[in-house]
């Protein structure tokens, strides 16, 4: 059974990275290392596996979808006062509570009928 290892994070300057570039790519590809490249002591770039890049792209796409959904929701409330929105929200919550109560009553009734039918 293969032992899973966490890649180590290595930091090096640009000239070192340039000299070892091919080796660094292989180590990153094999999940042995993540490389931080510094220029004048300041981290400026990284060499990471494509899986990390894909995760970042997926996260960004979800973030953009969330922002679009938020914009769509907000556009539906243009010209609606805060008080009116609160009233509508309270009304919707009350309707949901009533629907849940009704559903619970139906389930309870079903259970009682089932018990009587089985008990006969």
Describe the fold and architecture.
- The protein has 120 residues and is of the alpha+beta class.
- The chain folds into two domains: 1-64, YefM-like domain (YefM-like fold); 79-120.
- The protein is 66% helix and 16% strand.
- The protein has four helices and three strands, in the order βααββαα.
- The chain has helices at 14-19, 21-29, 50-75, 82-119; strands at residues 8-13, 33-39, 42-47.
- The chain has a three-stranded mixed sheet.
- The longest helix has 38 residues, at 82-119.
- The model has no long low-confidence stretch (mean pLDDT 91).
Task: Label this structure with key terms.
alpha+beta, 16% strand, 2 domains, 120 residues
Helix/strand structural class: alpha+beta
Enumerate the spans where pLDDT stays under 50 for 5 or more consecutive residues. none
> Looking at CATH, which topology of the largest domain would you report?
YefM-like fold
- Looking at the overall shape, the CATH architecture of the largest domain is 3-Layer(aba) Sandwich
> Using only CA atoms, what is the Rg?
29 Å
Number of helices: 4
Q: pLDDT average, as an integer? A: 91
CATH superfamily of the largest domain: YefM-like domain
Condensed summary:
With 120 residues, the protein is an alpha+beta fold. It has helices at 14-19, 21-29, 50-75, 82-119; strands spanning 8-13, 33-39, 42-47.
């Amino acid at each position: 059974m293969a032992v899973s290892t966490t890649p180590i994070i290595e930091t090096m300057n640009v000239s070192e990275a340039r000299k070892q570039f091919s080796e660094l790519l292989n180590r990153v590809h094999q999940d042995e290392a993540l490389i931080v490249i510094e220029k004048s002591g300041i981290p400026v770039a990284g060499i990471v596996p494509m899986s990390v890049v894909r995760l970042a792209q997926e996260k960004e796409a979800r973030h953009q979808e969330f922002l679009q959904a938020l914009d769509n929701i907000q556009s539906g409330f243009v010209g609606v006062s805060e008080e009116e929105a609160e009233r509508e929200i309270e009304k919707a919550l009350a309707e949901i509570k009533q629907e849940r109560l009704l559903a619970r009553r139906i389930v309870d009734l079903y259970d009682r009928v089932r018990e009587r039918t089985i008990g006969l």
